[in-house]
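Page 37, continued from 36.
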């Protein structure tokens, strides 16, 4: 019996040689996802509720996705960029049909996925679907083994799907190494433009050297790096801390057509306060993260709606340069400062308080934060105030609520003199 280390080396040699056989197609050379995808996804809020008898409103069924498409198109979301309606796990029948083709659960999706795609397209939206590189999906529905990749890509294209989330439960590292590039190729070969979201990094340790972010950027439009988000402030902090603690590895990997994905926005659910909801929106915008909500758009309260529909935050998230932002520093006082460079020498700044006592008055100046000399105009994203002038040397104070943020959009009054060049 080979010793584990030896076995591992053999597997990696084998995988390397097999990988040479897989033509690496640039999935993201197709011009999709030039800014982080925006939309709605079922998983975090509706999970694998298949009980349509007792819970018709909330079960995973075509009605749920039609309801959300109605809300996205009628309540102002689509115009702001929220365009993908994404089906997650548990949409399938427990078995493939007699030709081996995936099919939706006949009771919960009686009209079929093609009709659902038409419904979504007729409202000016796009449809996303979920599959799993492995024997079964994470919830035990039919998976996409290597031999089924082409067939499933063709099936999705024939239904009019616009986005695939390709999960990685129930497969091994070698299958994933082959399968993720193969699916990229198969999606391209259908001729239908489909955004390709890969969960690969989650299954192989999230960081280099196990994860090759250059390869991911070549084959996927976005990728889930880390654990699933849950409906709690703890979960949001756990995820954002991982992303910023590891920014040196993952931040350079992002750009137009290739995005790190810290998972869904949970704003509007049960776990976040108003302050924490603003914090998620602010930091997901700094991180150039996909803005994919998982909430109940039919019963969203106005405060959550205002945060998710904040135009300044969205335009920071969707900035065309596509540079992912970074944490600049953490103060001993538990104040943290985040920054993202934007088009036209503008910037987004976030001041976050990790305190739990009272609003904290943080004193600083743009110069201390590393900005070049000159005059700036500052706009407070959540206050929505009129832009205010600020000189780089001027001391200012921001009042940051516990677990909340102050988020600024700022730009130099004279472009040539004053922009930050930290990255
Ligand atoms: C994994 C993914 C989640 C969701 C579930 C579905 O946990 O990371 O986002 O898709 O599977 O089973």
């Amino acid at each position: 019996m080979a010793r584990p280390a030896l076995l591992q080396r053999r597997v990696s040699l084998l995988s390397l040689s097999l990988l040479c056989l897989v033509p690496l197609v640039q999935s993201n050379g197709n011009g999709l996802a030039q800014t982080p995808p925006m939309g709605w996804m079922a998983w975090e809020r509706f999970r694998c509720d298949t009980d349509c008898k007792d819970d018709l409103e909330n079960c995973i069924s075509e009605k749920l996705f039609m309801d959300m498409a109605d809300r996205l198109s009628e309540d102002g979301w689509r115009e702001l960029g929220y365009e993908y309606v994404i089906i997650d796990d548990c949409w399938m029948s427990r078995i493939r049909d007699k030709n081996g083709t995936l099919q939706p659960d006949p009771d919960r999706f009686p009209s079929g996925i093609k009709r659902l795609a038409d419904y979504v397209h007729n409202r000016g939206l796009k449809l996303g679907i979920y599959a799993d590189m492995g024997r079964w999906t994470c919830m035990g529905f039919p998976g996409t083994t290597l031999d089924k990749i082409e067939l499933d890509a063709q099936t999705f294209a024939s239904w009019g799907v616009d986005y695939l989330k390709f999960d990685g439960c129930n497969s091994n590292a070698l299958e994933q190494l082959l399968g993720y590039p193969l699916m990229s190729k198969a999606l391209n070969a259908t001729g239908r433009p489909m955004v390709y979201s890969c969960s690969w990094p989650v299954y192989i340790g999230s960081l280099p050297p196990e994860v090759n972010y250059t390869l991911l950027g070549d084959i996927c439009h976005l990728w889930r790096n880390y654990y699933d988000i849950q409906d709690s402030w703890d979960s949001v902090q756990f995820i954002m801390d991982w992303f910023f603690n590891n920014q040196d590895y993952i931040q350079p990997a992002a750009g137009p057509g290739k995005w790190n994905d810290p998972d869904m926005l949970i704003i509007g659910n049960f776990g976040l306060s108003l302050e924490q909801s603003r914090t998620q929106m602010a930091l997901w915008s700094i991180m150039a993260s996909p803005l994919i909500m998982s909430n109940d758009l039919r019963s969203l309260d106005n405060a959550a709606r205002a945060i998710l529909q904040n135009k300044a935050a969205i335009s920071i998230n969707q900035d065309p340069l596509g540079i992912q932002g970074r944490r600049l520093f953490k103060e001993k006082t538990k104040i943290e400062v985040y920054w993202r460079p934007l088009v036209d020498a503008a910037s987004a700044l976030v001041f976050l308080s990790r305190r739990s006592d009272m609003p904290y008055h943080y004193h600083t100046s743009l110069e201390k934060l590393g900005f070049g000399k000159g005059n700036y105009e500052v706009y407070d994203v959540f206050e929505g105030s009129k832009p205010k002038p600020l000189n780089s040397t001027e001391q200012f104070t921001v009042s940051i609520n516990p677990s909340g943020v102050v988020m600024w959009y700022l730009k130099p009054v004279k472009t040539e003199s004053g922009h930050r060049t930290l990255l």
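Residues 52 and 61 are 8 Å apart (CA to CA). Flag for discussion at group meeting. Residues 43, 88-89, 137-139, 167, 199, 228 surround alpha-D-galactopyranose (CB under 6 Å).
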